[in-house]
Design goal:
With 99 residues, the protein is of the alpha+beta class. The chain is 34% helix and 22% strand. The protein has a three-stranded antiparallel β-sheet with strand order 3-4-5, with no helix packed on it. Helix 1 packs across helix 2. It is extended, with a radius of gyration of 15 Å.
Length: 99
Amino acid sequence: MSLLENDSVCMGSGSVDGNNQLIIKGRFQQKQIENVLRRYIKEYVTCHTCRSPETTLQKEMRLFFLQCEKCGSRCSVVSIKSGFQAVTGKRAAARARQQ
């Protein structure tokens, strides 16, 4: 799963321009974008055991696995379903209380 796929799903529609830069359509505060990026990096980039960024994302059947090149750890990661929306502000606080 690429960053573009994640951001497009989380924040609405996104695309990559001719300079290979991510274009996100809509109005978002910097904090919202940072939160989405942090969650993506935590879940799909850094190793859940040693926190190294030297990882690869592998798909086997319908499951995604994060394989660490540094410590050899391997763990499954959640796939993002289409229709997921970033939750911010008051809705995020209400959602956090429910979990």
